[in-house]
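Archive transcription. Copying these from loose printouts into the bound notebook so they stop getting lost. Printout 1 of 2:
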Amino acid sequence: VSTPQDALLVILKSLMPACLFNIIGFGSTFKTLFPASQTYCEESLAVACQSIKRIQADMGGTNILQPLKWIIRQPIHRGHPRLLFLLTDGAISNTGKVLELLRNHSCSTRCYSFGIGPNACRRLVRGLATVSGGIAEFLAEGERLQPKMIKSLKKAMVPVLSDVSVEWVFPESTEVLVSPISTSCLFPGDRLVGYGIICDTSLYISNPRSDKRRRYSMMRSQESGSSVFFHSQEEGAGMESWNHSRDSEGCCPAEQLDPLSHRAGTDVKVSSRRRAYSTTQIADHEPCKKVPTASDPGTALVKNPLRKTHLQDLQQVSPEPWQVDFQ
């Protein structure tokens, strides 16, 4: 293991000042150099270099799942994205579980994996990098590890965006559900996609004195505690742009199909807009669950629950009042 040792020493001495690091050796069991990630300084660097020089390939088989669970349980520090450099020369029997675990925490952990020698499992090495947005490298017999690790380190140490917030501005007469941000850091080349569901609530708030408006306001205030966005803030703005886009693109189904809305003849006067925020919450982060797809192994035998509904059950469903009115 002299070549990996030399490469690790070079990588360790190339880290940025004030970053956090730790070293974990794994086999049948695993050992951590520090009980928690340490700040990079002269003292911690000296301890790490001495530990690397004493590394021996004597820890038995390959068990990645347990050390990976330990890593994920460690707290995430703001401004310090978790970058995992994994070196392995073998294969494991639970590759699927390892990939699933890292996929569920890919928003906070990025893996740069290195397969050393002909016995390294290509599915494992490539999969770890793919599900987390990292890079996979393979080394043939006699090939040097240092250049490939330096290449991955340069890509990993580029400046990133953290504490990302997305601000949505929408009219007061709407209620919006926005998607949470699914990553704690944005690396160069990453794409952040956000979604919002907008519902027109003008029918509920058209009459300021109606009991329906009071019930709606109470409902919205109760639901705001579990909402994905912060409490709305009002700002003075007109509704011309919103009305124009809504008329051109189509309105809510309830507004299209309910004839009562056309008979009422009431004008919705709203002169303010609200803001909603979608932001990263590292302290309260929960792993995103993977949605099974037809291409995943083992999903072919799972029946679609929607197919259990019989036709006669659907025929017994009574129509909505607006459907009867419209007909």
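Printout 2 of 2:
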Amino acid sequence: MKNLILYKQLSILNYVYVSFDSSFNIIPVEDQSCLKYWSTERRYSTLDEVLQDYHDLSLNQIESQLRSDSYIHFPELIYLPTGNIHEIFIHKIEGNFHLFVKEIKVSSISQNTDKQLFNETPVAILVSKVEEPNPIVNQQFTTLLGYTNEDISTLKDWANSIFIVEEEREIIHKNLEQDKQAELPKDDTVLTFEGKILCKNKELKVCEISLRFTNYSYVMTFVDVTERVKSQNSFVESLQNFKEISNNANDILWILDEKDDKILYSNKKFKELFPEVKHEDSNITYLSNLVYPDDKIGLNEAQDNYLKSGYTSFNHSFRVKIQDDIRSFSGTSDPPTTI
């Protein structure tokens, strides 16, 4: 029980431990988190293999002391595979040996490499650790949105000021509030959404945003989709204008699909004259039946020539039976347009 309390206390202080038997062979465990400070490329089986990866240390140097004393403490050791600084002490309990490790300093080489990769990543990134108030951003983030590390005190306050749509602010708030309730998301929990962002220069940009929780940190990525959204909005606006103009025109207009067997769009005048024809009809046989019999041959020939000529526009006059009346129309067929 005393040892269990010790392990829990050390775990709270960010120590991890690995156990070895009396012959210094590693005791396998299911929870691999105890190996998190060591290189993933290493596969240790004995204490001697572990100690040889530390600068100027081996089992031969300490074995006699280890068997006679209850523990040995090393305040700072360089772990050679990564260059990071570890604190280690080895505790002897009931014939077995327990090696406790805590990473106390990341090597400057590793830090510089990570920083360079972080800044050279071609995606705007913001990282906010749960336990630390000040998020960090990379160079792409500053280039895209204008904000630097000094501009962001907390992720929540920053989100309040840059997300102009309340629903988008709530997405951030909802996810950040989880840590206050001790209900942190699982690692690699990913949420994606599209948001309008107010840049530092007051310009509005639309970004595809990914919010990921991993290693007790929130990682946000931003991809600029402003031009794509503008194009979509422009298309929708043009389509609305087209519908408004066509509905006010005196011409009868309908648009067929590329196989000429389904009506994709018809204007108000068309609907008034042919109320029986529905857009969901799978073909336009009904329409062809309305053409005056004597005019069908000429209309069919005009349509065939239209197809053979590579969709060259043509005009052709024909008569249509509407209820008990016969009306004459001048039909115009234009090259197909994708809508």
